[in-house]
Amino acid sequence: MTLTEKEVEHVARLARLGLTPAEKKLYQEQLSRILDYAEEIKKLETENVEPTYHSLPLENVLRKDVVKQDVDPGKMLAQSPSAEGNFYSVPKILD
Amino acid sequence: MVALTELTAYELTEKILAKETSFREITRSFSKAITDRDPKIGAFLIQNRSADKESEQLDREIQSNPKEFFRQHGPLAGLPIAVKDNMCTTDFPTTCASKILQNYTPAYNATVVEKLRTARMPILGKTNLDEFAMGSSTENSAFQKTRNPWNIQCVPGGSSGGSAAAVTACEAPLALGSDTGGSIRQPASFCGIVGLKPTYGLVSRYGLVAFASSLDQIGPLTRDVRDAALLLSHIAGHDPRDSTSAPVDMPDYSLSLKQDIKGLRIGLVQELMGKGIDPEVKKAVQESAKVFERLGGVVEETSLPTLTYALSVYYLVATAEASSNLARFDGVRYGTRAKDVDDILTMYTKTRAEGFGPEVKRRIMLGTYALSAGYYDAYYLKAQKIRTLIKQDFEKAFSKYSVLIMPTSPTVAFQFGEKTDDPLTMYLSDIATIPVNLAGIPGISLPCGMQNGLPIGLQILAKHFDEPTLLRASYAYEQATSWHKQRAKV
User: Fold this and answer.
1) Cα–Cα distance measured from residue B366 to residue B268, given in angstroms and rounded to the nearest whole number
2) Is the peptide bond before A32 cis (omega within 30 degrees of 0)?
3) Which alpha helices (H) appear in B372-466, and where do they start and end?
4) pLDDT tens for residues B118-144?
5) Cβ separation of A17 and B382 shorter than 8 Å?
6) Average pLDDT, stretch B408-432?
7) B310 with B434: CB under 8 angstroms?
8) Do B383 and A12 touch (CB under 8 A)?
9) Does residue B12 contact residue B28 with C-beta atoms inside 8 Å?
10) Which of B49, B81, B154, B366 could be B413's S-S partner, Cβ–Cβ 3.0 to 4.6 Å?
11) Strands across the sheet with B194-197, in order?
12) Closest residue, chain A, to B324 (C-alpha)
């Protein structure tokens, strides 16, 4: 298979996704099949082709550096599973 | 007497102007249709119980001068509309059909939602979708199944399946959907209605929960082309809050509703008329080409060779962008958070493991892999280069033709569970719609036939910001046929 089990674990960790052993196996198979299909892109010559990141050629879309408050911060804090004062509270990050 | 719910949105406005009905009566008819039919269809995740009251308010306002009301608020002002549940609404939860957002009510409205409010259009409810807009059948919704009103054993298409089913089942006269790889056009095709993906940048993405930022667009799902053109005029326009929003002047789309296409050069795309496309679908598209010729159009076969790579490109680019966009769902600021976690890493991994469905996980993984060190050049960068070649193929085609035609989907609506075993089989149902998002050009699906009681969709494409020509070609075809007059019996 195109993807090894180690690679699946590595990608899952990068994506912060907890996978069960069954899921690891399933995704290893399914993702390998998709990547095998996508191998066809190697056939095309793209040596001097620029990548397209956006279909509209807009650049440096800026606005004036003026403070705006479109949304109520109180409302946004209230949406958090756990907030204290003006802070979002989460489990310990550093030991 | 035709029921109000079976009329097009424009026909409803004519009835208002003729004082033959009221906004309250209209909204009530649709609210009742939802109550009666949605237990069977499952288009709505949540229904707005105040829609009727909002409409009563409108009737009081419009009393003196209905003409002035439409002049001030827009051609479809006051009509009720369904909105796909990946667009932020402060008045209703916005779940994206995902467990991770099942308790989330946004603190702000999407720009398109604000435009609907300015147009005084009550929202009938939020419609079902594939989770985070990832899917082609709406089967990936974490909450419920949506059924195709033409055949309830079949899917309505996806990811805007709820919006498409709502309009098709006459539960709403209008709906908004979003399209990243075909999610407006393919359900429109499966449901026999009109679905338009505007040019990238024409409609603001502010408040649309992002799947793939360089591909996503919001667009109308309607019973006919006129309604699509009028709804587009309500939602299009530059938005300073969306930095990918195009700073272009919006033309009056109602002026495109002419039936004149004499001399219009039309390219029939060969790569989408080959094997992999159902013979009945091909036949219907070939018949449509004859209709265009009878109307004075000039149809020629044309080839866009890079299109055959579009699926691979899409499943590398879109998933890469999705892996980035969905990183924000981590249990910190909104949505659900896993319980019984002692450290931050477990909080992230458990929250996301519990909150995301399998298709979403698959795509996040694929995208993360394509962007990861050691694979970025071979996959993501290579795909974006081929994207340039695809764009160039379209540019070459549009130097010769004003519009391109092809099927919207290789098949008609399939049955539940038919394509869920192998993800690749599901992805292949988007081969005709995906290239359009990669190039950023506009595309529309119109009904053009039936196969065993299920609709077939014709797809028409035009170059960037040429919605006027696209709508004109679509309107001409539609008015020369009767597919748009069909209504599904629920």
Assistant:
1) 33
2) no
3) 382-400, 423-427, 434-439
4) 999 999 999 999 999 999 999 999 999
5) no
6) 95
7) yes
8) no
9) no
10) B154
11) B44-47, B123-127, B81-84, B174-179, B217-222, B194-197, B443-451, B454-461, B403-407, B265-269, B298-302
12) A15
Q: CA angle, corner A14, sides to A11 and A19, nearest 5?
A: 60
Contacts with B440 from chain A: Cβ below 8 Å: 54-56
Model pLDDT, residue B288:
98
The verdict on ipTM greater than 0.90 is yes
Q: Which residues of A touch B94 (CB under 8 A)?
A: none
**B391 backbone dihedrals φ, ψ, rounded to 5°:** -60, -40
* Disruptive mutation site among B341, B342, B368, B390 for chain A (greatest number of A CBs within 10 Å): B368
How far, in Å, CA of B283 to CA of B266, rounded?
17
Q: Please tell me the pTM assigned to this model.
A: 0.97
Token output for B304 = 């866009």
d(CA B467, CA B199): 8
Which residues, in sequence order, are bridge partners of residue B175? Answer: B82, B221
CA dist., res. B124 & res. B51, Å (int) = 6
Check: CB of residue B177 under 8 Å from CB of residue B221: yes
Residue B124 CB partners (closer than 8 Å, separation 6+): B27, B30, B31, B34, B44, B47, B48, B51, B80, B81, B82, B166, B171, B172
Q: Do A31 and B464 touch (CB under 8 A)?
A: no
Cβ contacts of B452 within 8 Å, gap of 6 or more: B412
Strands B298-302 and B265-269: parallel
**Candidate from A33, A34, A91 with C-beta closest to B343:** A91
B35 and B171 Cβ atoms separated by less than 8 Å: no
* Buried-state track B149-163, b at ≥16 Cβ within 10 A, e below 16: bbbeebbbbbbbbbb
